[in-house]
Amino acid sequence: MHSAGQLARSPAAKMFFACAGLLVWFSAALHGADLEEVRRQFISGQYSNCIRACEQAIADREYSEEWRLLLVQSLMATGRYANALAVINSSLDRYSGSVRLRVLAREVFLHNGRKDRADALLQEINYLAGTRTWAFRNAPDLVALGKTALLLGADPRRVLDNFFDRAKKMDPDCRDVYLASGQVALDKNDFQLASKTFAEGLKRSPKDPDLHFGLARAFAPSDRRQMLDSLESALEYNTNHVPSFLLLADHLIDGEEDQEAEETLEKALAVNPWHPEAWAFRAVIRHLADDSEGETQSREKALRFWENNPAVDHLIGKKLSQKYRFAEGAACQRQALSFDPKFLPSKIQLAQDLLRLGEEKEGWKLADEVHDEDGYDVTAYNLVTLHESMSKFQTLTNEDFIVRMTAREAAVYGGQVLTLLQRAKQHLCQKYGLELDKPTIVEIFDNQKDFGVRTFGMPHNPGFLGVCFGHVVTANSPASQAAHAANWQAVLWHEFCHVVTLQMTRNKMPRWLSEGISVYEEVQANPVWGQTMNSRYREMTLGKDLTPVGDLSAAFLTPKTDLHLQFAYYESSLVVEFLVKQFGMESLKRILRDLADGVQINEAIAAHTASLEQIEEDFAAFARDRAEKLAPGLDWEKPKPEELLKADLKWLSEHATNFYVLNHLAKKLVREKKWKEAKTPLEELTKLYPTQTGGDSAYALLAEVHRNLGETNLERKVLSKLAALDADASDAFLRLMELYSATQDWSLVATNAERYLAVNPLVPQPHRYLAQACEALDQSQRAIESYRTQLLLEPPDPAEAHYRLARLLHQAGDAAARRHVLQALEEAPRFREAHRLLLEISAANKTAVRSESGPDGVAPSNNHKP
After folding, report:
1. Cys bridge to 167: 139, 436, 465, 780, which one at CB 3.0-4.6 A?
2. Per the domain annotation, does 795 fall within a domain?
């Protein structure tokens, strides 16, 4: 018998081993190709095929751990958690050095209710990483180690640098790197970094559904249309992609499209009948439908395999809070934290819920705790930074309100804020029959980013002027609105109306109705507040943009443009106006009371008005009628763009009443400074369309024309019409103050100053005009207040303001007059009138001293003895 060594030296043996080696290499290459194909099947959602292929490979004694990893991942994706556990139990000892298998095994143990075993695995991985560092040098292993480090509490930034970025440099095509890095950014609410990371991954793997899904999640808070596009791509490359179905269901719930959300969840459950998030979303839908039994059953199914899973109650609570059900959402977060006190997503969500409920002490404390435990959590960092800024705010209070704003703004218009809110409370609470049981908190921010953090947890501010959470209101101050400040009085009236309707319904109302009532009540309080039909809304109403009443909440969620979002507000207010006109105010209040009792909106409307189908039909006719009645003397046929480009006065004569031709030609002539020619189309527009405001308004252009032609009286007349129509026309208000001041029509100066201050009280000019007007109208106390406010705003001529204030104070016998006249002289030492006033004040003071003295010039004693 030959020994092995001897056999190896024979030519035949050499040929045998060469062939054997070739066969081994060929077999490995063949199965390597098979493995890559099976991996593609898994990524594309062919889970059944993947499971069969992996089981066959394992039965054929394929050694690579990749087959076990793919098998377990496929079993988990289809909800076969017990089967996945069996595979894991048979694989851990076999692959005693595999960190990737252990990271996956942890997830399997958790989904089988074995948290103790899952936690032990983290320590195993940590031990392996410390003793076998040399063994983990490929990208997937580095990613697995990074995930473990995060779970053990490592600093996320260091994990990104030391593990994920290293893995990316080692293998730029490794999809796990981008998925893991993007997930870290999502977990910490760093959505900008998340979108950048997933987009980078998609450059390498453009058909990867998981990367498209990650990008969708990154866009979800800021751009729902981009999110939906990314979800469409994810489902194109994996028609069984459960996470995409769940995010789509999430979106549909936000839009109050519960039936569509249910159908989407069915698709997810067809793939994985035990997915915890799918059942959690179903519990949310049941809760919102006031189906407590269905909610309980859905929650139990969500916890079927992992009964202490904090993510389930966290998700339910987060969705309820997004529906403004903050008390219910907070209760869910407390339940999640009872399962896992260190579950930071629930802790930061609870912090925000409590802050929105006005339970600020505990809310700020929780935000601090999350920041201490995780310095990378963007929301926690933002809130902690905001708290520091808000500690410098001034608080104004009365029996019904707690108002917080910067000390400077509080001094300028804080008193007016309290007065307006008190008036809103008296009127709206009486109108809707509501008694508030605690003060309303109103916080006004001079920095848009601070408003964004307080309101949304993030510094972005997607166009909101104010937000109401129930009895807490946040608002942007005029200082944060740059050149396009809105009427702050209208904003606060709008938000306080939300306070009334949200509390009246216990926060159980669709967004369209909530916004519709608030815009409607703006107009009821002041006809120039709120929104009215205009040329753009007319075109949208008579076109294809009028949304059915039952779908109105969704119109706020994914508007095509900013204009479509504004139209959603307007249309909602028009629905409310329609309901009140057709069925009366009492019917609207009954609908709100039904919502508070858990009745669904369509049922509540049908019970007190008509069926939803009838309402939608009648409202559409009502809206079209309103649109058609806008400037009926105008021709509203829209010319083609190329026709407008060649429009001239001759073409105008052939289209003398066409709105678009008149508007286009007027703007063109103004741009060319052809003032006389521009008068013709502008005067026609103001005659045929006398209610124009905002971007439509020909009044502002016509006033500019008159000004450039020196036609001051006509300019004043036109601007007065504009000022009576538009509550935000601050430029018109300022110009009218100048014009009426020149003619000494002081009552109209005061009127326009007050209009301006309702838009922006933080500039000195309107305070100066108001003070001068009040002086002339013998309203000395108001004049004194206005001059004092002007001086808080660093006026361009402080000497004049101090002098005028000193003069009024002296007339009132106020000793502060001397200080202000001295300040006037400090600013302008040669100010002759101020010198004369100082002499007058000094002489008056000497006279007063002499009159209080006895005959010998000594003041009499008050201590007379009998």
Report:
1. 139
2. no
Joined tokens for residue 373: 């435990």
SS3 track for 209-224: HHHHHHHHHHHCCCCH
The whole-angstrom distance between residue 852's C-alpha and the CA centroid of its chain comes to 65
Sign of CA dihedral 577, 583, 585, 590: negative
Residues 640 and 578 placed together within one structural domain of the fold: no
Residue 658 counted as domain residue: yes
| pLDDT tens per residue, range 264-314 | 999 999 999 999 999 999 999 999 999 999 999 999 999 999 999 999 999
Last residue of a domain, one of 111, 136, 161: 136
Which H/E stretch holds residue 394? Answer: strand 394-397
Residue 79 lies in a domain: yes
Same-domain pairing of 550 and 467: no
Q: What is each CA distance from 665 to 640, 650, 681, 722, in whole angstroms?
A: 14, 11, 7, 21
Instruction: For residue 784, give the H/E element and its range.
Output: helix 780-792
pLDDT at 575 over 60: yes
pTM for this entry: 0.87
Q: Could you tell me if 544 and 514 lie in one domain?
A: yes
Tokens 């089967």 locate to 83
Pairing mode, if any, of strands 440-445 and 401-405? Answer: parallel
Over the stretch 599-610, which tens digit does the pLDDT of each residue have?
999 999 999 999
**Residue 204: both structure tokens together:** 């390498």
Are both 550 and 495 inside the same structural domain?
no
- Burial label for 661, CB within 10 Å (0-12, 13-18, 19+), is buried
pLDDT digits (tens, 9 = 90+) for 389-405: 999 999 999 999 999 99
Domain residue limits at 515: 508-630
What is the residue whose two structure tokens read 């703004």? 409
Q: Based on the domain organization, do 691 and 615 belong to the same domain?
A: no
HSE of 866 in the Cβ direction (CA atoms, 13 Å)? 0
Q: Tell me how many domains the chain contains.
A: 4
Same-domain status, 697 and 711: yes
Nearest to 791 by CA among 512, 390, 364, 411: 411
Establish if 414 belongs to a structural domain.
Answer: yes
Q: Which helix (H) or strand (E) holds 476?
A: strand 472-476
Cα distance between residue 363 and residue 330, in whole Å: 11
- Within 255-309, where are the H helices? 258-271, 276-288, 292-302
| Helices 65-77 + 99-110 axis angle, to 10 | 20
Residues sharing a CB contact under 8 Å with residue 465, sequence separation 6 or more, in sequence order: 475, 476, 481, 486, 491
DSSP codes of every residue in 414-467: IHHHHHHHHHHHHHHHHHHT---SSPEEEEEESSHHHHHHHHHSSS---S-SEE
At residue 447, what is the residue type?
A: N
